[in-house]
Amino acid sequence: MRVGGMSRVGRWLVWLASLSALGCADPDRDALLVVKVEGRLAGLRQLRAEVTLGGRTSSPGLVPSGPAPSDLALPLSFALRAEPGVRGAGELRVEALDEAGGMLGEQRVQVTISAGHAVTVSVCFGAAADCPLPVDGGVADAAPPDAARECSGDGDCTGLGDPCADVHCDRAAGRCVRAPKNQGGSCATSRCDPPGACSYPSACAVAGARAQTCHDFVCLDGVCTDQVRTTNDPTGCARSTENQTCDTPQCTRGPCSYSGLCASSGTRREDCSVKTCKSGVCTPGQTSQMVSTGCERVTEGKPCNLVGWCLQISNTVDCECQQGQCVNPCGVYECRNL
Predict the structure, then answer these.
(1) Whose CA is closest to 27, among 81, 85, 83?
(2) Could you give the C-alpha distances from 148 to 21, 134, 139, 207, 273, in angstroms and in order?
(3) pLDDT averaged over the chain?
(4) Residue 177: pLDDT above 90?
(5) Where do the domains of the chain lie, and which CATH numbers do they carry?
(6) What are phi and psi of 279, to 5 degrees?
């Protein structure tokens, strides 16, 4: 059964890489943690996996990224990748979830991440009759033969194989040795990281695509290896751009004009060269409008170039602006031109 990708594994990879700053750095190649889930569990719709390494716990990865529409068929496998320079002993926790995200069961396994190697970890959910007997804590280390288990017969090597290699006993050496197989074949379920944002070839383009990184896990020389590929998915990227502005408008403005000497705001003409999308093409155009931008002023209490009479004598005073009107400050007679 093909299971959907782990949408949040990327967050674990970033976290593992950050451990280099804690003194775990190693120049060797990256490593894979292949998780094989066995057994039988009614209502199983999703798996959640997290790793604790160096006292820190990763963000959880989900398989598939959303609850499956029907029960997951076991066994199934998925893979997590550790960035170069990350290694050490830790613990893998795998939770079995139902359709609503409730936990049906939990398994914990000790793991050792070894740079440049693949480690296959087996966990089992269900009754004892549905689960194979564990071997070395359920961990099959795909390290070179000199790191394998001592043996006196093939029975001592049972359970150490994985999709990329069979393991048998080299009686002369007294050790279990790996025999690569399935060259170029799949060793874990392929998965894709979440797609990125839609990108478009131009401001007026109506079709775009999301870049998405996918991982295919194949056997190369006896090791389960992550083969990375990038795809462009147009799903969900269609859009309408008609009449939308596709460039920064270039505008010129004329002088401000006011309705009177005491007016505190005015208007002026604004002519703009505006480009808009027409049938997917950025097309030049012109607009013209009256705007008030930059035409605000303070007139309160200022002379309004008219004079008035005070106390009915020949004394004249400057009229002034009050609340937008030109008035006589003496309150006698009106302001007028003389």
Answers:
(1) 85
(2) 30, 17, 12, 54, 75
(3) 77
(4) no
(5) 9-143 (2.60.40.3540), 250-291 (no CATH), 299-338 (no CATH)
(6) 55, 40
Cis peptide before 75 (omega within 30 of 0): yes
- Per-residue three-class SS string for the chain: CCCCCCCCHHHHHHHHHHHHHHCCCCCCCCEEEEEEEEECCCCCCEEEEEEEECCEECCCEEECCCCCCCCCCCCEEEEEEECCCCCEEEEEEEEEECCCCCEEEEEEEEEEECCCCEEEEEEEECCHHHCCCCCHHHEEECCCHHHCCECCCHHHHCCCCECCEEEEEECCCCEEEEEECCECCEEEEEEECCCCCEECCCCCCCCCEEEEEEEEEEEECCEEEEEEEEEEECCCCCCCCCCCECCCCEEEECCCECCCCCCCECEEEEEEEEEEEECCEEEEEEEEEEECCCCECCCCCCEEEEEEECCCCCCEEEEEEECCEEECCCCCCCCECC
Q: From 16, 100, 86, 20, select the one nearest 51 (Cα to Cα).
A: 16
Strand partners, 213: 230
CA 219 to mean position of chain CA atoms: 29
Q: Calculate what percentage of the chain has a pLDDT beyond 90.
A: 22
Whole-angstrom distance, CA of residue 145 vs CA of residue 178: 6
Q: Which residue type is seen at 282?
A: C
- In terms of Cβ atoms closer than 10 Å to its own Cβ (0-12, 13-18, 19+), residue 251 is middle
pLDDT one-digit tens code per residue, 145-160? 333 478 888 888 877 7
As given in the structure block, the two tokens for residue 243 are: 């009449």
Give the integer Cα–Cα distance in Å for 299 and 324: 7
Give 42-83 pLDDT, tens digit per residue: 899 999 888 887 777 777 888 888 889 988 888 888 877 765
Amino acid at 195: P
Residues 6+ apart with CB under 8 A from 311: 330, 332
